[in-house]
Automatic annotation (TrEMBL):
PROSITE patterns to which the protein is assigned, alphabetical: PROKAR_LIPOPROTEIN (PS51257)
Keyword tags: Signal
Domain spans labelled Haem-binding uptake Tiki superfamily ChaN: 43-237
CDD domains with a match to the protein in the record: ChanN-like (cd14727)
Signal peptide start and end residues: 1-31
Protein name listed in UniProt: Haem-binding uptake Tiki superfamily ChaN domain-containing protein
């Protein structure tokens, strides 16, 4: 593996890594049968709903559970990883001026996502007048975090609030490092790992900050399973700042172990896809 990697230009790995970070943090139990289970428990102040980004079954199940809550009267704001925070004005104007989700996607959606998977959630927000909130970093800001560290995109008050002037908690840094290395087929150059961790943590803190900014309104976060993890993700950072909020985290996973990661998890059938590591694995010698 090492020799194969060393023959690949470094800029290719950097570009691929940033592209993956733009929509990473997906993780991998199926709600058995075709019936959709009822949502669990009362509506929290913050509901973090994960995803494997390209898994259509997971998107469908998550939407049905959210729809049940909304149709029963819940009216949260919906923060979405799929929209960059810098584009909030465009997203807000689209939500006011568009009659359907396709229009919102056309006006405010970027090129990195399979938008038809998000159409139902966006349409739900339009139908029930739930604010859509952009929650992600742009690629430019992610690159700044890679280059200059976690604090690069935050103002001085946020740095103090989230204690970013101190080393990251060891479990957060270690857990993120493990996920990022595994998510890149255990082929990521060691020199890139710290920067990738910084970018991922920056995304989590920004999402936590944006979620808190919606208070006193309840909030749903739509994001990758890695982002909604209780131990090292957004949930960890939401309550790093007082006052504490009631947070529920749900993973929509493809069967890998998730002990302690979520308050609840739903297993969905794996999405058929090419082996993501196949293109970077060394070829066997004939």
């Amino acid at each position: 593996m090492i020799s194969t990697y060393s023959r690949t230009p470094g800029w290719m790995f950097a570009a691929a890594a940033l592209a993956l970070l733009a929509g990473c943090a997906s993780g991998g139990k199926n709600a058995g049968g075709s019936a959709v289970p009822a949502p669990v428990g009362a509506n929290p102040q913050v509901l973090l709903l994960g995803e494997v980004h390209d898994n259509a079954a997971g998107h469908k199940l998550r939407y049905e559970l959210l729809r049940q809550r909304v149709e029963a009267g819940w009216r949260p704001a919906i923060v979405m990883e799929q929209f960059d925070r810098e584009n909030q004005d465009v997203l807000s104007k689209a939500q006011k001026g568009c009659l359907d989700a396709q229009c919102v996607i056309r006006v405010a959606g970027g090129p990195r996502w399979e938008w038809q998977l998000y159409y139902p959630v966006i349409q739900l927000a339009l139908t029930y007048q739930l604010p859509l909130i952009a929650g992600n970093l742009s690629r430019a800001d992610a690159a700044r975090a890679v280059r200059d560290g976690v604090t690069a995109t935050f103002d001085p008050q946020s740095i103090r609030d989230y204690r970013l002037d101190q080393p990251l908690p060891a479990d957060v840094r270690g857990g993120q490092q493990t996920e990022i290395v595994a998510g890149h087929c255990n082929m990521l150059p060691e020199m890139m790992v710290e920067g990738m961790v910084n970018a991922q943590v920056s995304r989590d803190i920004w999402m936590a900050k944006i979620v808190r900014d919606q208070q006193p309104r309840d909030v749903v976060l739509i994001a990758g399973n890695g982002h909604v993890r209780k131990d090292i993700g957004v949930a960890r950072w939401i309550n790093a700042v007082a006052p504490a909020l009631t947070v529920r985290s749900e993973g929509y996973v493809e069967g890998q172990g998730d002990s302690g990661r979520y308050d609840a998890s739903y297993t969905v059938a794996p999405q058929p896809r090419p082996d993501p590591c196949g293109a970077v694995q060394p070829k066997a010698k004939s």
